[in-house]
Every structure is written in C-alpha cells, then in structure tokens.
Amino acid sequence: MFDLALHFLIFIIAGSVAFVLLPLLIGQFVRPDSPTPEKVATYECGEPTIGSSYVQFDIRFYVVALLFIIFDVEVAFFFPWATIFGGATQLADPRLSDAARMNLTDRLFDLLPGTTTQETMLSASDALQMAWTGFGDILVFFAVLMVGFAYVWKRGDLDWVRSLIQEKKNAREAASKASA
Amino acid sequence: MESVGLSGYLIVGAVLFVCGVICMATKRNGIGILMGVELVLNGANLNFVAFSQHTHLGLDGQIASLFVIVLAAAEAAVALAIALNFYNNHLTIDVDRAADLKG
Amino acid sequence: MSVPDLLNHVLHTDLPRSVQIFAPELVLCGTIVALLLVRMFDAHRWLPTSWVALFGTLAAFVGVFAQFMYMKTDGEHESLKGMFHFWGLTADGVGTSGPYFTGLLTHDSFAVFFRIGLLLFLILVEALTILTGIPDQDDGQDFYTLLIGATIGMLMACGVNNLLMLFVAIEMMSVPSYVMVGFLKGRKVSSEAAFKYVVYGAGIAGVMLYGVSLLSGVLGTLSFPELGSRFALLMGDSAFTLSNPTAVATILGIMLILVGVAFKLSLVPFHFWCPDAFEGASAEVAGFLSVASKAGAFALLIRFALAFQGTAPAVQTLCLIFGLALGVVSCLSMTFGNLAAYTQTNLKRLLAYSTIAHAGYMVMAVAAMMVILSGSKDKDAAAACVSGLIYYIAVYLFMNLTAFAVVAFIRNQTFREDIDSYNGLATGGAVTKLVSVCLLIAFVSLVGLPPLAGFFGKFAIFSSAFRAGSVHWFLWVVLGLGGLNTVFSLFYYLRVLRAVFILPPADETKPVEIPGMVGAYVVLITLPILALGMSSFMGDLDATALDVASQLFHI
C-alpha cells in the first residue's frame, strides 16, 4: 500500500514538472522573437509591477470579486442536490433489476451495502416523484438567485465602464471644486 | 493504509481555531482579523466533517459544513464591502485608528 | 420506517404542513423578490418600494395572526373562517404543534406569539421609516430587502429546533444588520460603526460555530429534543465533574454557543459593539436592532436552554451551571449598562447602554427558569418565568420604539442627537409638547415605575427570580442587584427628562415644530405602554403569555 502511494507521488511530481517545463521549452523554439519594453514586462492584471507592494488595487476589482464570491459559493448547494437528484433519476428507470435497485437505494441513502431488502427498496414511481420534487426545489432556488443576479446586472455593478464613467465624473467634480 | 482517526482531525481543527482566535486578537488590520475568522470557521468545519465520518452525526455534519461555507462566504463579502466603505471614508483599515466612536 | 414510507411521509405529510406553517415567511421572501423586480423595471417611480414592503409585511402579519387565532380557537372562530381558509390552515398543519421541515424548526404557540410580535414590530418600523424618509427613493429597495431579510432570520430563530438552524438563524439576523448599520452613505461615523460591528460579529460567529461543532460532535446529533437525552445517556451514572471528557466538551460547546447568543443580546462582556453601532446607525435602525434582534435571540435562547431538560443528575447539574452562568452575565450587564449610561452625552448612546441593562434584566428570567428546572420539577414556576419574559419583551417593544422614534423625529428637525439639543423641547408647539409627553411615558416605563407597563414586566421577572432563589441562593443576589440597578437607572433617564421639560431652550434656536402626522404615530405607539399597564389588556396579555409559556413545558 505504501509502495503504491510512493509511486503515485513520484509520478505526479515528475508529471507536473514535465508539464510545466515542456511547453516552455517548445515555446522557446517556435515563438517569434521581437521584444518591446511592454512585452518583456511581467504581466500582473493591468497593475504596475514595480514599486511598493502596498499600492491600492483598482477599486473595481473589489466590486467584481465581492459579487463573484456570492454567486460562486451558492453553487455549493448544488452538490448535495446533485447527488440525490442523480440517484433518484437512476432509480426512476423502471427497467432496473431488483438487485441493482437495492444496490442503488443503499447508495442513495448512504446505508451500509445490503441494508435494503425487497420490501424497503425505492420503487420507480417513488423515485420519479422524488426527482421531480428535487427539480422543483432547485428551480425555485435558482430563480431567486437569478433575480438577484439580474438586479445586480441592471444596476450596472458588473460593468467595468460604469465605474470608469463614475470615476471621470468624480475627477471632474473634484477639479471644478478645486478651481472654485 | 491506516486511517488517521477522529482525534487527529480534532487536533488540527483545534489548532486552526486557536490560530484564528490569536489572529483575531492580535491583528490590527481589519482584513487580517477577517482572515482569522476564516481560520476559525474552517476549524469548525473540519470538526463537522470529521464527526460526520466517525460518529453518529452522519450526513448532518456534511450538510452543516456546506451551509457554513456558504454563510461564511456571504459574511466575508459583506465584511469586505463594509471594509471598503470604511477605507473610502477613513483612508485606512487599521481598527485602532477607528476612534471616532468611543467604544 | 422503511425508505419509501419515509419518503412518502416527507413529501405528502411533512412538506404541505411545513409550507402551511412557513407561509408568512415565504410571503416575506416573495416580498424581497418583488422589491428587487420593482426596482429592476423602474416601477418604483409610481409604486414606491416602501409601500411594497409594507404591503408584504402586512400580508405576512395577517398570516401569522390567522395561525395564532386558529391555534387558540382550534379553528372554530366563526368570523375568521374565511381567513383560515385563505391561508389553507388545517388541524393537521397549523393546528398541531410539533416539529416541521423534517425537524429543523418547531411549531407551537410560543413561536407563533413571537412571530406576531416581530411582524407587528416590522410594520411599525417600516411606517417609521416612511415617515422619517431614511432610505431615499433610489435605495429604498436595498434598505427594505435588508430589513425584511433580517426579520426572516428572527422569525426562524423563534422556531429553532436544530443546532444548524440556530447558526443559520443567527447569521441571517446578523449579516443584514451589519449593512443596515452602515447604510448612511458618506458618513464617517456610520461606516466606522458598521466596520466594528461586522469585525466583531464575524469573530463571534466563528467562535459560536466552533461551539456548535463540538456540541454536535460529542452528542452525535444536531436535533434539540435529543440533546438532553443523549447527554444523560453518555454521562450514565457518573457525576458531573470536570475530569469527565464528555462533560467538559459539552460545557465548552454550550459556553461557546452562549457567547454567540450573548453577542446578539448585547450582554456584558460581549456588548462593545452595541453603543458604537447604535451611535453610528440611524435611530430607526438602532431601534429595530435593539428590540427585534433581542426578541429573536431570546426566543432562541429559551429553546436552546430547554433542550437540556431531564431527570438524570448530570443533566440537572448542567442546568444549574447554565442558569448560574446566565445569572452572572445578568448581574454584569445590569450594573455595567446602568453605570456607563451616566456619562453619555449622545441620546442614542445612552439608549444603547439602557438596552444593555434591559437585556440584563430580561436574561434574569432565563437564568431563573434554568435554576428552577435544575432543582425542582415545578414546571408551573418555570412557565411563569417565561411568561414574565414574554410580557416584558412585548412591553419593551413599545417603550424602546417610542424612544428611538422620538430621537429620529427630533433629528429630522434639529439634525442633532446629543442630549443638550433636547433642552427646552417641551416649550415647542402643541405637537412637540405631545411628543415630549410620550417620551416621558416611555422613559418612566423604562425605569419601571407603576402604573406603567414597564413596572409590571419588571415585577414579573423579579418575582420569578425570587422564586428561583429558593433553589439556589445566587438568584437572590441577582435579584438584589436588579433592584438596586432599577433605582440607579432612574437618574440618567431623569437627566434627559430634565433637559426636555425643565431646562430652558438655547436662545438662538427656534422652537422645534413637529408635523402632526408624526405626532399621531408617536401617540399610537405610546398608547400600548399605558394600555398594557392600566387596562384590561394587561390581564389579557398576561394570560396569553402564561398560556403560551405553559405550552412550551407541555403542561
């Protein structure tokens, strides 16, 4: 067992090193060579790379990041739903043999293999009902999520340009204030 | 391969919790404190998952950890938005400099 | 029960029943979606978002009220038959108390009563914000979404029956409140208050969650009804000592969870956020937080405390420790809140410290309940504690709302919130005089002087603490401190009243003129303070509270 793990480790490390180095090496040979100062500069998401690391990043990154966190993490709720929905749709197939049906029921409800008997296994119609209920649940959940998303979109919080416009407006106001 | 056993997970969880609490208590930077909070939450989450594997808690523990992940993200988003607002008004996120209010 | 039976039960019995009970909350969720849609299609110009919110809340209130009447009359009320039918109430659904949503939440008249109170309060706060115009037309939907979202969390807290739900409910009431505190844009103080609140709150939430994970892991369940019996089973006959790992882990878990609840209740030593948040937030939001999140958290605390009932000696010891810990916190909160309130110059800050002190009085009732349960089997006495608390919270709702509403209205006129700006308020116009009298009534009731409602609430709580003192002497100490504190608190409330009624107004300011509509609102929310103290309503509320509390103990 330990040997197996060690072999896996060696192969994964060797593989990952090779996958990094190989493309770089190939690129070295095939790419055209015409450097300009901008091209040689290290790329860092549109921020100047040299200088104090205590600069403030563009504030627009934060807004997008905040919205991303919210909508990204909601996906976590899809995982438990997906396992149940998948199991239920499998069981909804009336052509399954009893043995397979018992096996799948065990797996769906996280029971020890062999717990389910002929009497307690999930019938196709019950499984279908369960699948449809689950589908309805997720539709409601997703619809509410989408309303939130549409609201954010409509308000223009996702637009890169809107914040640019806002910024220019602020700068103009500040300038007019300063001149006054 | 031998499994690690419940106590191993619990010790890692407790270490994460203590690190997080120390981080919350000593950091003066608002974002640093929020990082400490994330450590604490993850310590608790590790407990949940370990308990779900090794005790009668079963799947309840895993569902709890999923809920915690989502709520933690929501809380982090709100906290960061408020931190941003604070920065815009004060030009710092040092909690010690937040002294307009006495408490 | 076999798997297909279980599935059938969930789909055909539990789900319809749950949806029936949970319908008011679902209406509120729908209101939030409607608010966003109204703003999205720019319909807010002819359909103000505040009215959408108010209408949705009214509908939810009617729904919960129908549930309450149905439970009270067993669905026999003739004139309300149509309403019962409209909300689809049945004897198996709302008519039967017990867990729903597969045991995540629980339904009984205690939960329904708290939900009525919370929704009534939400309606009043929404009316207040419409009158003071705190959210402007462009961000009304954001404000009401947060307000209603927080309230849904509190409504869930009333029926919590599962440790996971406890965490979810607390987070649902906390997260929107962080944003609401910082809602006043471009104000330095407001952003600072929100920042402190969120940092502190997030930290406490993490600590509480660790407690939940410990408790659920040790006892192997998340469900409240099983916590006590599992604990008794694990302890067996062994005594409750600190060398027993189960006992230590359980106590640690409970303490960490109590930290989270104490934070929501702003109990000393977890109160630091409260004065800052109240000073930074607008008075409307501060009023909402001071009453609603407290009511929700108290319902949750009682449910959590009652999860540890049992006859085994270990459980009894646990109850006693639980009760005494709450008693210590109660002493600290009362004393600290009242002492710190003396030196305040900002009225909202003063009210924040008064809120801390009042949380101390209220938690005394829960401490008394736990101590009584640990010593005797006297469930009637324990129910009396809960009914005293319910009465107090109901009265406190109107007292604090009046105080904060007056602060909000005066701020709209003078743009100031310090106590000096109230000098000579009573010399203003007729409506201003009326509002000053309302403030007087609210403050005198907050002190707890007869014959106002605050006195009877305080009396009920003190008498239950007195009864608990015969089980453990410490509750008599708590009671004594409570009495002393009541006397102390008189002085700082009187300082404000002196400014309003006796001190002359500053020369250069013109007398404050308050619109008549506002005066009517203030009178409307002040009347219950009088009515609940001096009329037959008091007996009604008392009887209902006792009825509701006894159901909690299955008497």
Give the arrangement of secondary structure elements.
The complex is a heterotrimer of chains A (180), B (103) and C (555).
Chain A (H helix, E strand, L loop, with lengths): L1 H29 L6 H4 L18 H15 L4 H14 L6 H11 L15 H31 L5 H20 L1
Helix pairs in contact in A: 4-5, 4-6
Chain B lengths: L5 H21 L3 H25 L4 H32 L13
Chain C lengths: L2 H38 L8 H25 L7 H6 L11 E3 L4 E3 L1 H24 L7 H19 L4 H19 L6 H32 L4 H12 L9 H20 L8 H8 L2 H24 L6 H29 L5 H29 L3 H36 L15 H18 L5 H17 L4 H28 L14 H19 L1 H17 L3
Antiparallel strand pairs in C: 1-2
Could you explain how this protein is built, in words?
- The complex is a heterotrimer of chains A (180), B (103) and C (555).
- Chain A is built from seven helices and no strands.
- The model of chain A has no long low-confidence stretch (mean pLDDT 81).
- The radius of gyration of chain A is 28 Å and the shape is flat.
- With 180 residues, chain A is mainly α.
- Chain B is an all-alpha fold and 103 residues long.
- Chain B has a domain at 28-93.
- Chain B has three helices and no strands.
- Chain B has helices at residues 6-26, 30-54, 59-90.
- In chain B, helix 1 (6-26) packs antiparallel against helix 2 (30-54) and helix 2 (30-54) runs antiparallel to helix 3.
- The longest helix of chain B has 32 residues, at 59-90.
- Chain B is elongated and about 55 Å long.
- The mean pLDDT of chain B is 86.
- Chain C is an all-alpha fold and 555 residues long.
- Chain C has helices spanning 3-40, 49-73, 81-86, 109-132, 140-158, 163-181, 188-219, 224-235, 245-264, 273-280, 283-306, 313-341, 347-375, 379-414, 430-447, 453-469, 474-501, 516-534, 536-552; strands at residues 98-100, 105-107.
- A two-stranded antiparallel ribbon of chain C has the order 1-2.
- In chain C, helix 1 (3-40) runs antiparallel to helix 2 (49-73), helix 13 (347-375) runs antiparallel to helix 17 and helix 14 (379-414) packs antiparallel against helix 15 (430-447).
- The longest helix of chain C is centred in the first third of the chain and has 38 residues, at 3-40.
- Chain C is globular.
- Chain A binds chain B through residues 1-2, 5, 59, 62, 65-66, 69-70, 72-74, 76-77, 79-80, 110, and chain B through 1, 58-59, 62-63, 66, 69-70, 73-74, 76-77, 80-81, 84.
